[in-house]
TrEMBL record:
Membrane topology: Multi-pass membrane protein
Subcellular location: Cell membrane
Signal peptide: none
Keyword presence, Transmembrane: yes
Species of provenance: Thermohalobacter berrensis
Key words, A-Z: ATP-binding, Membrane, Nucleotide-binding, Transmembrane, Transmembrane helix
Transmembrane segment boundaries: 12-33, 53-74, 134-150, 156-172, 240-261, 267-284
Protein name, as recorded: Thiamine ABC transporter permease
InterPro entries in the record: AAA+_ATPase (IPR003593), ABC1_TM_dom (IPR011527), ABC1_TM_sf (IPR036640), ABC_transporter-like_ATP-bd (IPR003439), ABC_transporter-like_CS (IPR017871), P-loop_NTPase (IPR027417), Type_1_exporter (IPR039421)
Length: 579
């Protein structure tokens, strides 16, 4: 896993090297200052050479200007490197997600994926940037100062460096607690957000049930938990900083006391004591860095682990090696002995289904809810893979066809229309991003939505709100139909396209759908049987499989389930034996 992490540095190796070199110089300059101070106090001032002092000062100023430049590079370009790596990872993750099967999304919460992409990767970027730099800087500073000091007075140095691990241990321990506390704060604020979102989107329900007080109580609970979590987080933050500062101050006192004693005994000089004090005061920086590193490593690596987890999920439905593109499609569809079950529950949804739809003809699927009609249709564009049997288009097994060309040739209109947040035009264009304006208008006219679009304040550029919230169900459906007109696939699936609409809207949309299915092989699912009467073949699917098939007249004559359902719809009641 670490090697995969490191592989993301490759593309940014230049920035990485620059970052490390600059970090090296920063550490080196910081190590120089106490030595120069010692020089000034012990040699330059006693010797009375004021010019040497000036030279020292000039050199120091130059060094600090350089240090500022290096610091800027590390702070800016280091973060740029981290952000770019995060960008690469996020792009890879999103690209990978797009390749995953529908099955994966059936079983994964959207919120889970969101937090993988947004939060986890943020932690990684911080680690990617600060990790190597922090370790490098801190070790140079600690090791460097140790080597310099040990040459001056080894006993005093050992005392100081016996303290350092204790402070680091304390800092990491407290920091872990602080980190945990802040993580819980994040979780709690997510809960508050979710509560607000839920309450506001259900505000009409809350009002109609006059449950405002209950809603407020629910909110109060989350809000209080958030407050408590924050109080705790600040407590651990205070413990951390107070503790570390206190230990460093004690160390200062020890150095002053012991060092002063050594000066008194003439073991070291005053300037050397000064160097000790200065170094100890520098320690705050590496200690802080190492502590943050410990925390970032933990957070970043957990995030990266989850990143790798998703990246390692392989899509099951992929192109075969010698898959062919589907060209000049006539549109003859055949289901041969098809059986299917959703993997997570063993119940067979479809078993031994045999169906043929001839080129340009319409097949209607009717039957009780849960019989597997939608499932059957989803097998055609390979959203799921058949367990047994095969499906062919123009006598080619769909498993031998590239997924891209297969899906390009199958159009789907569903009951739950999904529109993307954006404009009308963007949504229609989704059917074919290369379409011209004329083609878009033509598609809209065919879908009987052009006049409506023109009546909108900005015409085709009107913003339709989040997921098309500003449109009625019928309007949304017509836009989705225009989208399929623009895609212009030879094969069409209409899955209860009008079921959610009122009668009048349905009749209007029905006309657009008839125009759409003209000349295309169509599978239509509908529970209003008046709309499927004219299909070339009607298949009645129940939990037991296909129980009736034939055209309308034949099925009415047979007087089976279809005939019962049909009569019931005309009389206005539904018999019990639907299932
Ligand atoms: P219909 O469209 O005829 O109403 P479906 O094809 O939607 O029926 O569903 C058939 C059966 O498959 C139902 O029992 C349903 O619970 C199950 N099912 C549908 N979709 C999924 C899914 N994504 N994962 C697991 N089971 C599913
Ligand atoms: Mg269905």
């Amino acid at each position: 896993m670490l090697s995969k992490f490191i592989s993301y540095y490759k593309k940014h190796s230049k920035l990485f090297i620059i970052d490390i070199i600059c970090a090296f110089f920063i550490a080196a300059f910081d190590l120089v200052f106490p030595i120069m101070s010692r020089e000034v106090v012990d040699n330059v001032i006693p010797s009375g050479k004021i010019r040497t002092l000036y030279i020292f000062i000039v050199v120091l100023v130059i060094l600090y200007i350089l240090r500022a430049i290096f610091n800027y590079v590390v702070d800016y370009w280091g973060h740029v490197m981290g952000t770019r790596m995060e960008y690469d990872m996020r792009r890879d993750l999103f690209t990978h997600l797009q390749t995953l099967d529908v099955h994966y999304f059936d079983n994964t919460k959207t919120g889970y994926i969101m937090s993988r992409i947004v939060n986890d990767l943020r932690d990684i970027s911080e680690l990617a940037h600060h990790g190597p730099e922090d370790i490098f800087l801190s070790s140079i500073m600690l090791v460097g100062s140790f080597l310099i000091l040990i040459r001056i007075e080894w006993r005093l140095t050992l005392v100081i460096f016996a303290f350092v691990p204790i402070i680091i241990w304390f800092a990491i321990k407290k920091n872990r607690k602080m980190h945990k506390a802040f993580r819980s704060v994040r979780k709690k604020i997510a809960k508050v957000n979710a509560q607000v979102e839920n309450s506001i989107s259900g505000i009409r329900v809350a009002k109609s049930f006059t449950n405002e007080i209950y809603e407020r109580q629910k909110f109060d609970e989350g809000n209080r938990e958030f407050k408590n979590a924050r109080e705790f987080a600040f407590k651990s933050m205070a413990e951390f900083f107070t503790g570390v500062h206190f230990l460093l101050n004690i160390l200062n006192v020890v150095v002053l006391g012991l060092g002063g004693y050594f000066v008194y005994k003439n073991v070291i000089k005053v300037g050397e004591l000064l160097a000790y004090i200065l170094y100890v005061n520098f320690f705050m920086q590496p200690i802080r860095r190492l502590t943050f590193f410990a925390q970032q490593y933990q957070a970043g690596m957990t995030g990266f682990e989850r990143f790798c987890e998703i990246m390692s999920i392989k899509p099951r439905i992929v192109d075969k090696k010698d898959a062919v593109d589907l060209k000049d499609v006539k549109g003859r569809i055949e289901f041969k002995n098809v059986s299917f079950s959703y993997k997570d529950d063993k119940n067979t949804v479809l078993s031994n289904i045999n169906l043929t739809v001839e080129e340009g003809k319409t097949l209607a699927l009717v039957g009780p809810s849960g019989a597997g009609k939608t499932t059957l249709c989803h097998l055609l564009p390979r959203f799921y893979e058949v367990d047994e049997g095969e499906i062919t288009i123009d006598d080619i097994n769909i498993k031998d066809i590239t997924i891209k060309s297969l899906r390009k040739n199958v159009g789907l209109v569903q009951q739950d229309v999904f529109l993307f947040t954006g404009t009308v035009k963007e949504n229609i264009l989704y059917g074919n991003p290369n379409a011209t304006d004329e083609e878009i208008i033509e598609a809209a006219k065919n879908a009987d939505i052009h006049d409506f679009i023109m009546s909108l304040p900005n015409g085709y550029d009107t913003y339709i709100g989040e997921k098309g919230i500003k449109l009625s169900g019928g309007q949304k459906q017509r836009i989705s139909i225009a989208r399929v007109f623009l895609k212009n696939p030879p094969i069409l699936i209409l899955d209860e396209a009008t079921s959610a609409l009122d009668n009048e809207t349905e009749i209007k949309i029905q006309k657009a759908l008839e125009r759409l299915s003209k000349g295309r092989t169509t599978i239509v699912i509908a529970h209003r049987l008046s709309t499927v009467k004219n299909a070339d073949e009607i298949v009645v699917l129940s939990n037991k499989g296909i129980i009736e098939r034939g055209n309308h007249e034949k099925l009415i004559e047979e007087d089976g389930l279809y005939a019962k359902l049909y009569k019931a719809q005309f009389k206005g009641y539904i018999p019990d034996e639907i299932d």
